[in-house]
Structures are given as structure tokens and as C-alpha cells.
């Protein structure tokens, strides 16, 4: 039957998820990768067309063989899909969701809001707005 | 499409550094302490022209003055 072959290797995509200091996945076969691209959230399966996507700070979900999925929050970077079901995701920081503290996120949102609405320099306000965007995205996925 | 960080005069590199810093600060205590050590950078550079080394500058200082100069001009 067709669905018996669904988890065969030829239907896997080889994922490398690398940070400057660590490789979370190293050319490992997985079923599906959902990424927060700037052009919109997208799911990548085997035999996807080649693509380069800039990533927003957000959650990446990796569906492994057997159907269990792992979720990480990335600080932003790039994903490339190459011919032959090969995918690379590069980001500066990335951690499993369970490594984050909801309290730390909440405290930083309060702090960043003060700066974003305060009378600081244009640069301070811009940085606070970036922080808010990241923190709100993080808070949404931690719920 | 113009990104908000770009119109504020920030480089993509700086934008990523800010986003990553805030991700590190959101970690649970034990992981945060290990991760935050990675965020510290200190680099000096000098521009060479006509075979002579120019003034040696701190990268962070040079970046922030360049950002202030670029603010609002890149729309």
C-alpha cells in the first residue's frame, strides 16, 4: 500500500540545523521542517523546489521519522533548500522551547515597552522595537 | 519591502545581534549564564590605504556612529 512507504528514507529530507557554536541536526533524515520565513510560515517536505528563505525570529518545527516533532526558537537567519532533498538552516541562536523562561520573557517585554515608548534616541527605540518583536513571538509560542 | 531595522539605519548583522541577545536573555537561568558569554564581542579594526595603516578603531563605536549617520537615509 502506498502509505507503507511514507516513512522510507527516499521520502526524507536531509536537515542540517547549525548555529555558530553547535549543530543541532547534522544531515539527519527527517519527515518535515516548518520554518518561520519572512515571506510567510512554510512547511518543507522531501523533493521541495530549491529555495532560499530569510527567517524571522520564530519557531522552527522538525517532524522526525516516526512522527514525533521537536520545536526550537531561532533568533533569525537563513534556510536554503537544495535539489535532492537537502536542507540547511543557519541561525545565530536556537534553543528548544523548554529551555526558555516565560517569566524572563514577560519581564523583558515590560522593560522593552518602556524604552520603545520613551524619549530615547532613534537607535534605542529601534532596538527596543526589535526586542519586542522577538519577545512577543517567543511569548506566543511558549503558551 | 523595507524592513523596520533597515529604515532605522541598522545593519542586518546588528539586527541579528539584537535578536540573538534577547533570545539568550530569555533562557532559564542555568542556560542563560552559559549562553550570555557567547554574546560578548570586542574587535578593533583599521582601514589600510596606499600601503599605510589608518586609525585603529573599535568596531562597536564605529558601527554606532555609522548607524546614526545612516538613520532615516536608507528608505
Domain count of chain A, please report it.
Answer: 2
Biggest interface goes to: A-B, 28 and 28 residues
The radius of gyration of chain B is 16 Å
Helix content of chain B: 40-55%
Question: In a nutshell, what does this entry contain?
Answer:
The complex is a heterodimer of chains A (143) and B (75). With 143 residues, chain A is α+β, with helices and mostly antiparallel strands.
Care to describe what's here?
The complex is a heterodimer of chains A (143) and B (75). Chain A is of the alpha+beta class and 143 residues long. Chain A has helices spanning 102-116, 122-142, and strands spanning 13-19, 22-30, 32-37, 40-44, 51-55, 58-63, 69-74, 77-82, 86-91, 94-96. Chain A is elongated. The model of chain B has no long low-confidence stretch (mean pLDDT 84). Chain B has one domain. Chain B has helices at residues 4-7, 12-25, 29-36, 59-70, and strands at 44-49, 52-58. Chain B is α+β, with helices and mostly antiparallel strands. The chains are: A alpha+beta (143), B alpha+beta (75). Chain B: Pfam families: ATP-synt_Eps (PF04627).
Amino acid at each position: 500500500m502506498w502509505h507503507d512507504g511514507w516513512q522510507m528514507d527516499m521520502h526524507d529530507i536531509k536537515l542540517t540545523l547549525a548555529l555558530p557554536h553547535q549543530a543541532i541536526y547534522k544531515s539527519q533524515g527527517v519527515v518535515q521542517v516548518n520554518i518561520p520565513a519572512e515571506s510567510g510560515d512554510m512547511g518543507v517536505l522531501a523533493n521541495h523546489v530549491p529555495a532560499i528563505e530569510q527567517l524571522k525570529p520564530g519557531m522552527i518545527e522538525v517532524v522526525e521519522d516516526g512522527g514525533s516533532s521537536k520545536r526550537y526558537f531561532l533568533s533569525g537567519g537563513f534556510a536554503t533548500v537544495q535539489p535532492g532533498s537537502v536542507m540547511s538552516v543557519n541561525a545565530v541562536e536556537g534553543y528548544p522551547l523548554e529551555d526558555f523562561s516565560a517569566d524572563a520573557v514577560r519581564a523583558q517585554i515590560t522593560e522593552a515597552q518602556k524604552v520603545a515608548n520613551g524619549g530615547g534616541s532613534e537607535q534605542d527605540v529601534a532596538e527596543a522595537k526589535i526586542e519586542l518583536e522577538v519577545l512577543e513571538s517567543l511569548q506566543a509560542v511558549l503558551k | 519591502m523595507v524592513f523596520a531595522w533597515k529604515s532605522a539605519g541598522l545593519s542586518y548583522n546588528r539586527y541579528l545581534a539584537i535578536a540573538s541577545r534577547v533570545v539568550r536573555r530569555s533562557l532559564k537561568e542555568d542556560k542563560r549564564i552559559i549562553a550570555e558569554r557567547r554574546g560578548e564581542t570586542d574587535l578593533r579594526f583599521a582601514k589600510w590605504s596606499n600601503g599605510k595603516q589608518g586609525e585603529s578603531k573599535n568596531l562597536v563605536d564605529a558601527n554606532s556612529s555609522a548607524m546614526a549617520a545612516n538613520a532615516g537615509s536608507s528608505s
